[in-house]
Amino acid sequence: MRYGYYPGCSLERNAIAYHQSAVAVAPQLGIELNEIDDWNCCGATEYSSIDLIPAYALIARNLALAEQQQDENGGQLVAPCSACFLNLSKADHYMAEAPDLAEKVNDALSAGGLHYDPGSIQVRHLLDVIVNDVGYDAIKAKVSKPLSGLRVAPYYGCLIVRPGYQAFDDPEYPTSLDKLMRVLGAEVVDYPLKTHCCGGHMTQISRPTALELIRRLLKNAADYEADAIVTVCPMCQLNLDAFQADVNRFFGTDFHIPVLYFTQLIGVALNISPVELGFGKEFVDARPALDKIGTGSPPTGRRRRSREKGLPMPTMSEEG
Amino acid sequence: MAETINPAQTASFMDEVVAATPGDPHLDRCLQCGTCGGSCPSGPDMDHTPRQLFAMIAAGMKEEVLRSNAPWYCVSCYYCVARCPQEVHITDLMYTLKQLAIKEGLYRESGISNAPGFSQTFIDFVENYGRSFELGLAAKYALRYQPLNAVRMAPMGLGLLRRGRMAIIPKRIKGIDQLKAILARAKALGGTA
User: Fold this and answer.
1) Is A224 helix (H, G, I), strand (E, B) or coil?
2) Could you report the per-residue pLDDT of A138-153, keeping only the tens digit for each?
3) Mapping DSSP to helix (H, G, I), strand (E, B) and coil, where does residue A77 land?
4) CB–CB of B23 and A101 under 8 A?
């Protein structure tokens, strides 16, 4: 299965572990990722705040390049970053829906000798490709080191499921990542805040706003005794991992939950070496969690009580 | 909010917002139910919820709307969009209001005035290199807009560097001249959809 690969800026550096693990597991799953030659930044959530047509032209250059390179990608473009996935699929969606917009964007692209026909490239998130094109059964057959004993909180974040220009799961209660983790042998904890926001760029603009959103997500995972949070987005990983110490200082909490990419855990289950999967680059050490794999030991300790109160409910406003 | 409504002005601001938003944002369908504000993770920080802003747009209260901090607190999570019974493209409209607030110079009064600076600093790097550059963004933005935060962010920056998670120099794409030509043409074409 051939795909165009749009890593996005984050995967070049701060989410290099996501890139390394994606590239390491892809061939084992029968996925051929061909990086789009000379792709540019999608503009994240920033360009659309400033100017509309340049924001769309910036995104559309990538779609036009993907269209030119169809022999290598078969008309399918895979983004591992949820923000890139959203922007690429949004530009394609609105260029198809609004011909005036498409005309202006193509006018701009023509200044660089490019053109994009809306609908000619299908934008996919890497999770979608893995669970739907490879499929759970095929993945299960390849698991050589089941993640038994590891309790994971499946964290989807926002843009992989909303607003759903290329929808493949429920916008508020998705389950594809849950099922994937179970296939790998992990124990999946209930995670009511699984599609709540990590704060995005608010860490830079309104720190208290962002830290509160991050705190809720960490607390929710801790309440359900997760050994690790598993993510599908570099922004979510950065906020929950690199800002976890900030949250602890700001709120006087003591969270220490590693935040891992789903591709890293696939790689572990396929018995790929941790170094090849980019482990060791996380702020919150993943080793204690990984050490539980294969032990199958149930969680112990005082937190257990929180599960015996009754039905699992989100606990967002406690300790506010 | 007690203002005399000028019908001509009312039509024009509503039209201006819709015209600057891609596709049909269904703004005229808003029922004032408040599901958007109730679903918003940063609702408590906003001076007006999206529902209120849409009523104010309908009332032609252009300056008040563009002075609001709400679009700048929008985290782009799309919860409101997923839940809106009328399929109003709320997040897209928040982006439009940010663009208009910058054009009209009114964002400075929103109380969260460094947000456009962050966006602008980010895209300056993208326009010059074709890729984002986190170290440059963090340094330039923090020094210019949040000097105190720069001190607080320094350990994390070092942590990212130590783990090989931050580049020292930006990466420039091969087709940077092509990209610059595309963006120059796009800017000349104007901001409406």
Assistant:
1) coil
2) 999 999 999 999 999 9
3) strand
4) yes
A114 touches chain B (CB under 8 A): yes
Q: What value does the mean pLDDT take over residues A34-56? A: 95
Nearest to A197 among B77, B115, B131 (CB): B77
pLDDT tens digit sequence for A266-306? 999 999 999 999 999 999 999 999 999 987 655 555 444 44
Nearest CA to A64 out of A95, A33, A43, A85 is that of A95
B contacts of A111 (beta carbons < 8 Å): 181-182, 184-185
CATH number of the A136-308 domain: 3.40.50.11810
Report how far residue A255's alpha carbon sits from residue A247's, in angstroms, rounded to the nearest whole number: 8
Of the options 1.20.1050.140, 2.30.30.110, 3.30.70.100, 1.10.10.2910, the CATH number for the domain spanning A2-125: 1.20.1050.140
Nearest to B79 among A15, A162, A206 (CB): A162
Q: What pLDDT is stored for residue B157 in this prediction?
A: 87
Name beta bridge partners: B161.
Answer: none
- CA A315 centroid distance within chain: 24
Higher pLDDT, B165 or A316: B165
Residue A28 pLDDT grade (very low, low, confident, very high; cuts 50, 70, 90): very high
